[in-house]
Design goal:
The protein has 361 residues and is an all-alpha fold. The protein folds into 3 domains: 1-141, no CATH class; 152-242; 265-361. The protein is 71% helix and 0% strand. It is built from 11 helices and no strands. It has helices at residues 9-32, 51-81, 100-127, 132-135, 153-191, 206-239, 247-258, 260-266, 269-302, 308-317, 319-351. The longest helix is centred in the middle third of the chain and has 39 residues, at 153-191. It is flat and about 70 Å long.
Length: 361
């Protein structure tokens, strides 16, 4: 899905604050909500007792802080020397602030949020009795999980659950992003109306959209937590797996996976309903985004951007308008292809002897 970048000084800062607040909140929720569970089972692996995991989190955050400091230093030096500071408008760039002061404010806010995240990770490490020296060690790049050992049945179940949860998380994030864009359009529509609120007959839709967005963001956080738990469980199973798998169990599992009768049994009602549910979800998301893109295009055709630099560039290049028109054409093409795929899947179901009801919700 094509996410459109916010432009303008105020829009840029609001977009950045929302992104930082989302990232920071997610990290803090994952960290602090897991505290009470740590002391219950000290035998199983958990990332919150793994010094290597903390060190890599801190390394990534500190690298972002260093990059932000570099950008701030470059802006300060440019303002002192006068070199690199110009009133010219770059048509191929989208600055987050209208002026250098605006860009400086954005970078400083970003730095403060990153430092808070670093403090939260270090506090979590202290809570779980991680030696401070272990947090400063260089553990190198993350090891790739390539092994000749076949995963046992429990590992396979956890891997399948992890794949399903990641798919659910992707869907939840897509839904939340579409709700944010819809909320922004509704807010622009209501706030630009000259009619006073008390004289409007139709109640505001912002409250309902905001409630659904809050629920979806909570769902995203819960899904991220479940993924973290499943990742830890899978890591624990891999670390504590026996050196050699049981030959008989592996042989039974292999025979079961290659049995033609089992293959036919797998394509039951649940299998077909899942296939149709997935393609129906993709059609619904594409249609929802198409509606939002068309409304955003209509707004862009009649409304100026609050950032004067962006408004000037848009009047010359028509970049956002052209991007929206291209995205609308892509979504229409995608919807047509998805509907054709669904028709083909219905033909396959009919030839397989399945009832037509399996293709409906």
């Amino acid at each position: 899905m094509g996410n459109l970048r916010c432009t303008g000084y105020n829009s840029g800062i609001m977009h950045l604050q929302r992104c930082i607040r989302w990232t920071g909140t997610t990290l803090l929720v994952v960290l602090f909500l897991s505290w009470p569970a740590f002391a219950q089972d000290t035998d199983r692996y958990t990332r919150f007792r793994d010094a290597k995991w903390y060190a890599r989190q801190l390394e990534s955050l500190r690298e972002e802080v260093a990059n932000t400091d570099t950008d701030i230093k470059a802006l300060v030096e440019a303002r002192k020397s006068g070199k690199g500071v110009t009133d010219a408008v770059a048509l191929d760039q989208e600055p987050e602030g209208v002026t250098s002061e605006g860009q400086m404010e954005v970078l400083r806010k970003r730095r403060v949020q990153l430092l808070r995240q670093i403090d939260a990770v270090e506090e979590q490490a202290r809570h779980n009795e991680i030696v401070p020296g272990d947090l400063r060690r260089d553990y190198g790049p993350k090891e790739s999980r390539t092994s000749d050992r076949k995963p046992n049945r429990e590992e396979q179940d956890v891997e399948n659950a992890l794949a399903q949860e990641r798919e659910h998380l992707e869907h939840a994030r897509n839904d939340a992003e579409l709700l944010r864009r819809d909320q922004n359009l509704k807010a622009q529509q209501e706030y630009s109306s000259p009619e006073p609120l008390y004289r409007r007959k139709k109640p505001s839709e912002l409250a309902g959209i905001g409630a659904r967005l809050t629920e979806k963001e909570t769902e995203v956080q819960q899904s991220e937590q479940r993924i973290a738990d499943l990742d830890d469980r899978l890591e624990d199973l891999r670390r504590n797996a026996p050196a050699e798998s049981q030959p008989e169990a592996d042989a039974v599992a292999e025979r079961a996976s290659t049995n033609p009768e089992n293959e036919r049994a797998e394509k039951d009602e649940g299998y077909w309903r899942k296939q149709f549910a997935e393609i129906d979800y993709r059609i619904k998301i594409a249609q929802t985004e198409l509606d939002i893109l068309q409304r955003e295009l209509n707004v862009g055709l009649v409304q100026y951007d609050p950032n004067p630099a962006t408004a000037m560039k848009e009047s010359i290049t028509r970049k956002q308008i052209n991007e929206h028109r291209k995205a609308i054409g892509d979504r229409k093409k995608e919807i047509t292809e998805l509907k054709n795929q669904r028709d083909n899947l219905e033909d396959v179901l009919r030839h397989a002897g399945g009832p037509a009801g399996w293709a409906r919700e």
